[in-house]
């Protein structure tokens, strides 16, 4: 698990993106977690652009004010597990020969220089040894490395502290998403994750006990809305409503919406195909066993995932099962009688925040 700080007290999850901020606080109750606190607010245009904070002071002020306007119980902790922008992260699975534990870090630093596109002294580097899913007698082991530019990480830490928050951990969005939607955080076959957000679509593969790689697609939920607005010559607000009322369901009333969305969603499907092909032909599979290379399913999450007919459309385009991810799967058991304070559709927007909050709630367990 990647961390810049050791987790100790319980913390809430903080998902910061270009257009909005979401907060969640989970509290352990017997054999499940309960969503005690949640909140969301929009960011003015230009505060964050493609993951880069352009207005530090304004963001810090908005974060501090946002803590006061949450729903549910008042946030009684200043400790936070926050997301880092995916656009600036680098992630890679390496293979290293068997060696003594004290030799591992030096070997990783040596190998990382061949992959990370920046001088090592300019980044924060973290890693975890990936446990093999299938028993093997290989003479090597897999290591997942991740890095972020020091300037960016230091900036985010400074902003959080200015907002009177205590950052306990910072992590890539994909890690939080996988923690939320992969049952028990383990998958015997590779699963492709699609996070259809307002400004970008995050793509990643999870297999065994770990992420394998991450990428981004230029098509976003906002792009889909704008395509409808332009084609049908309606306002953005009207287009947003039409997108979720009709989507890709193929109804007679929604045919114009369907036709407006086809070019962008076909482009998204092609980009997903490209990364699926890359994983299946180039990525490491040894930890899963030789017969488990193919992507078994695709999980959709993010605010755009609730669009009608989208899973069916992508299933046909990709020729693989596509379904909406369940961000509650590791938070509450199926037999739970506790109804979350937000609907399932709304919770898809909170997938990253819920994954971050789950890590924060597990802090005292040293997970």
Summed up:
The chain is α/β, with parallel strands linked by helices and 367 residues long.
Notable traits:
367 residues, alpha/beta, Nucleotidyltransferase, domain 5, 6-stranded mixed beta sheet, 5-stranded mixed beta sheet, 10 helices, 16 strands, 33% helix
Q: What do these coordinates show?
A:
The protein has 367 residues and is an alpha/beta fold. The protein has a domain at 186-328: ATPase, nucleotide binding domain (Nucleotidyltransferase, domain 5, 2-Layer Sandwich), CATH 3.30.420. The protein is built from 10 helices and 16 strands. Strand 13 and strand 14 form a beta hairpin. Helix 1 packs across helix 3, helix 4 (173-181) crosses helix 10 (351-361) and helix 5 packs across helix 6 (236-245). The longest helix is centred in the C-terminal third of the chain and has 28 residues, at 255-282. It starts with 11 loop residues before the first strand and ends in a 6-residue tail after the last helix.
User: Any idea of the CATH topology of the domain at 186-328?
Assistant: Nucleotidyltransferase, domain 5
Q: Helical proportion?
A: 25-40%
Q: Structural class of the helices, strands and pairings?
A: alpha/beta
The H/E string reads EEEEEHEEEHEEHEHEEEHHHEHEHH
What is the CATH class name of the domain at 186-328? Alpha Beta
Q: How much beta, percentage-wise?
A: 25-35%
Q: State the CATH architecture of the domain at 186-328.
A: 2-Layer Sandwich
Rg: 20 Å
Spatial sequence of strands, sheet with the most strands: 6-3-2-1-7-11
- The CATH homologous superfamily of the domain at 186-328 is called ATPase, nucleotide binding domain
Q: Could you give a short account of the major beta sheet?
A: 6 strands, mixed
- Could you report the average pLDDT, rounded to the nearest whole number? 90
Uncertain spans, ≥5 residues at pLDDT below 50?
A: none
The first-to-last residue Cα distance is 8 Å
How many distinct beta strands? 16
Quick one: overall form? globular
